[in-house]
Design a protein that fits this description.
15% strand, 12 helices, Rossmann fold, alpha/beta, 12 strands, 6-stranded mixed beta sheet, 6-stranded parallel beta sheet, 3 domains, 41% helix
Length: 362
C-alpha cells in the first residue's frame, strides 16, 4: 500500500537500508560542481595536480562552497596523506609516561603525522587486537611502552606485532623497554634503570650508610628487575652484603608503600636509608616515616627514581634518579618518522641530590 501525505502526494521512501544520507558533500558532488572528472577532483584535493590550471581553482572553489572535507583516514589507508604514530601502553601512569608521550608527539606533529595514545589495561588480547586495528588504519609506527617480563612469550608476541605492522610498511618501536637480543630488527629506546639505582646506593654509601633498604615490586618485569639489580650492584661496590630482610615488597602506589614501610621500620629500626623503585613509592615511604616521628634525613635518608615534578616540592625535597623520559619519546618519534635505526639506544640516568638524603646518624 502506498502512503500518502495530507495533500495526497505520494511520500518519498528511503530506498536503501540504514539511515538516510546526512547531506554532507562527497567527491562526486565536488567534481560535478567544478565540471571535472572525479579523478581530476581527487588529484587536486590530494595535492597531486598542478596548481595553475583553471580546473584546479574550480575544484578548490567547489570544495569550499560545498563544505567538502577530505577523508584523511581513507587517504592514509591508500598510502597517501598523513599517517598516525600510536603510543601504546598498558595504562597512563602519571607524568612519566606523559613526558615520554610528549617527546614523541613533538616529533610526530613537526613531521605532519597524527599522534594517537592507546591503552590496553594489561590485556594481551586487547593489545593484539589494537595492533591489528592500527595496521588496518595504515599507522606509520607503534611505540610500545612500559615494562614487561623478559620472557620468550613476549619476544614471540613482539615478533608477531612487527610482522603484522610490516605488511603496511609500519614499524614496532620498544619505547622505555629493553632491546630483544634475538630480534635486533625491532627498535628499542631505553634508559639506564640499573645504573641509576646503582648511583643512588653509591651516594648513600658515601654518606656512611650501611643499612640501606630497597622498596619495590620485586617482580620479574624489566623495570623492577633492572632497578633491583642496580641496588645489588651498589651494595657490592660498597662492600655491603645483600641482606634479604632489607628488601621490601610493595605495589607501585604511595598507599602500598606507606603500609609496607610502617611494617618494615617496626621490625628494622637499624635501617638508615631507603632506596625506592619509583618516586610514587618514595612519597608513601616519606609519609610513613613522618607519621612515625622519624626524621628525614636526620634518622633515615630516602631516594626515589623518576624525578616526577612534584617531588622537588616535598618537605624535604626528594633526592631521586632523573630518567630522560622526554628524550626517550623524542628519539622513538624520530625513528617512527624515518630516521635510521642503527641499534639499541640506552640513555643515561642522572642522580639529583636534594634534601631527603644526608649523612648517617651518629
Amino acid at each position: 500500500m502506498t502512503t500518502r501525505t495530507s495533500d495526497d502526494t505520494p511520500a518519498r521512501r528511503n530506498t536503501t537500508p540504514g539511515p538516510e544520507r546526512s547531506g554532507g558533500a562527497n567527491l562526486a558532488d565536488v567534481a560535478r560542481l567544478a565540471g571535472v572528472s572525479r579523478a581530476t577532483a581527487s588529484r587536486v584535493l590530494a595535492g597531486r595536480a598542478a596548481g595553475k590550471a583553471a580546473s584546479h581553482a574550480r575544484v578548490l572553489a567547489a570544495a569550499q562552497e560545498l563544505g567538502y572535507v577530505v577523508n584523511g583516514l581513507a587517504r592514509s589507508m591508500m598510502g597517501v596523506g598523513r599517517r598516525s604514530i600510536a603510543f601504546v601502553s598498558s595504562m597512563m601512569v602519571g607524568p612519566t609516561f606523559a613526558s615520554m608521550a610528549g617527546g614523541a608527539e613533538d616529533v610526530a606533529t613537526a613531521n605532519g603525522h597524527l599522534f594517537t595514545m592507546c591503552t590496553t589495561g594489561g590485556d594481551i588480547d586487547r593489545e593484539a587486537a589494537l595492533i591489528e586495528a592500527l595496521t588496518e588504519q595504515r599507522v606509520a609506527a607503534v611505540l610500545l611502552v612500559g615494562a614487561t617480563p623478559p620472557t620468550e612469550e613476549f619476544e614471540q608476541r613482539a615478533e608477531r606485532y612487527a610482522e603484522t605492522l610490516g605488511r603496511v610498511g609500519a614499524q614496532l618501536i620498544l619505547c622505555g623497554r629493553a632491546a630483544l637480543p634475538h630480534l635486533p630488527q625491532i627498535a628499542s629506546i631505553d634508559y639506564d634503570h640499573r645504573g641509576g639505582v646503582r648511583s643512588a646506593v653509591e651516594h648513600l654509601a658515601g654518606l656512611g650508610h650501611r643499612r640501606i633498604a630497597f622498596i619495590g615490586s620485586l617482580d620479574d618485569t624489566t623495570t623492577s628487575s633492572q632497578r633491583f639489580l642496580g641496588y645489588q650492584d651498589g651494595l657490592a661496590d660498597a662492600g655491603i652484603p645483600l641482606d634479604e630482610e632489607m628488601t621490601v615488597r610493595s605495589g607501585n602506589t604511595s598507599d602500598d608503600a606507606a603500609t609496607a614501610t610502617q611494617a618494615f621500620i617496626a621490625t628494622h629500626p637499624d635501617a638508615t636509608a631507603i632506596v625506592c623503585q619509583t618516586d610514587i613509592m618514595a612519597v608513601g615511604v616519606c609519609r610513613a616515616l613522618h607519621a612515625s616521628g622519624i626524621s628525614i634525613p636526620g634518622d633515615v635518608s630516602v631516594v626515589g627514581f623518576d624525578d616526577m615534578q612534584l617531588v622537588a616540592d616535598l618537605t624535604p625535597s626528594l633526592t631521586t634518579v632523573r630518567a630522560p623520559f622526554h628524550d626517550v619519546g623524542e628519539l622513538a618519534g624520530r625513528i617512527a618518522v624515518g630516521e635510521a635505526y642503527t641499534g639499541p639506544i640506552v640513555l643515561p640516568s642522572e642522580l639529583v641530590v636534594r634534601g631527603s638524603s644526608g649523612p648517617v646518624r651518629a
